[in-house]
């Protein structure tokens, strides 16, 4: 038997607590809105619980993007996501699998992106990004001052 993905296990716990769904209903392909019945207020609770569970901040709009703001008029045309819209989503959601949306560009398909798998991908991405920031901090800490008070790199 395969070892369960530890991120999926923790995300499942968050969703069970937040949405009051059965653990068996929380599958990677389950959509938050359609299959698990999440509403907009639930998305806020999910963000809060993910932050607490994984110990990182989720900036507003980073996970659950705001779709149709006036400054994004070029991203939608006749109820369909444009090529520019897809590019913007790729840039704003580097953790997302957009292959389904690339095939079916209806605006309603954007909501289908928000699955359990998307949350797992987001958390994994966020943890990798956080590690990258930690590596940067460690690298900066390796800088010391010379007797002339000019920065020098230690160990090089």
TrEMBL record:
PANTHER family reported for this sequence:
ACYL CARRIER PROTEIN, CARRIER DOMAIN-CONTAINING PROTEIN
Carrier domain location: 5-81
Query: Pfam families, alphabetically?
Result: PP-binding
Q: Which PROSITE patterns match?
A: CARRIER (PS50075), PHOSPHOPANTETHEINE (PS00012)
Per UniProt, the keywords (alphabetical) are: Fatty acid biosynthesis, Fatty acid metabolism, Lipid biosynthesis, Lipid metabolism, Phosphopantetheine, Phosphoprotein
The record, for Gene3D superfamilies, names: ACP-like (1.10.1200.10)
Q: What is this protein called?
A: Acyl carrier protein
Biological source species? Paludisphaera mucosa
* The keyword Phosphoprotein is assigned to this record: yes
């Amino acid at each position: 038997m395969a070892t369960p993905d530890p991120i999926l296990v923790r995300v499942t716990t968050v969703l069970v607590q937040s949405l009051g769904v059965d653990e068996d209903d929380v599958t990677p392909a389950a959509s938050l809105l359609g299959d698990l019945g999440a509403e907009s207020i639930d998305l806020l609770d999910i963000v809060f619980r993910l932050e607490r569970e994984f110990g990182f901040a989720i900036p507003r709009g980073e996970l659950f993007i705001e779709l149709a703001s006036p400054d994004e008029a070029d991203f939608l045309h006749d109820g369909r996501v444009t090529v520019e819209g897809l590019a913007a989503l790729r840039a704003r959601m580097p953790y997302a699998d957009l292959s389904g949306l690339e095939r079916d560009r209806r605006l309603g398909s954007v909501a289908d992106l928000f699955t359990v798998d998307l949350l797992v991908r987001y958390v994994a991405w966020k943890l990798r990004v956080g590690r990258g920031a930690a590596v940067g901090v460690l690298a900066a800490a390796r800088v010391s001052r010379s007797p002339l008070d000019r920065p020098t790199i230690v160990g090089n």
